[in-house]
Amino acid sequence: MEMHIDLQAVDDAVLALLHLTLHDGNRAWKSFDWDVLNRLHQRGLIGDPINKTKSIILTDEGLREAARLFRQQFVDSGGARTEERS
C-alpha cells in the first residue's frame, strides 16, 4: 500500500513547532527539513531560509499563523499536565 503524505499538514506542524523556538521576537531555529522551510518561504510565512544564519525570520503573517497552529495542535484545554509558556 502506497502512503501519501499530506505536505500541508507537515508544513503546518513544522510552523507550529517553530513557535517553540522563537527568540528575539520573530526568529526561530531552522532545524527542520529544507523542503518544508522552502515551502513555508514560498507561502510568505518565513524569510528566505537559505542564508548563513542558524535561524529563520517569521513574517508577521507567519508569527500569527505559527501561534494559531501551535494553540490548535499542542495546547491542551482539557486540564492534562502541561508546562506554562509565556
Structural features, described:
This protein has 86 residues and is mainly α. It has a domain at 25-74. Helix content is 42%, strand content 7%. It is built from three helices and two strands. The chain has helices spanning 7-18, 34-42, 60-74, and strands at 27-29, 55-57. Strands 1-2 form a two-stranded antiparallel ribbon. The radius of gyration is 14 Å and the shape is globular. 21% of the residues are buried. The model has no long low-confidence stretch (mean pLDDT 91).
Distance between the termini: 44 Å
Tell me how many strands there are: 2
Compute the gyration radius: what is it? 14 Å
Total number of helical segments? 3
Strand content: 5-15%
Question: What does the average pLDDT come to?
Answer: 91
Task: Give the neighbour order of strands across the main sheet.
Answer: 1-2
Report the helical percentage. 40-55%
User: SSE order in H/E notation?
Assistant: HEHEH
Secondary-structure-derived class:
mainly alpha
Low-confidence stretches: none
Shape: globular
Largest sheet: 2 strands, antiparallel
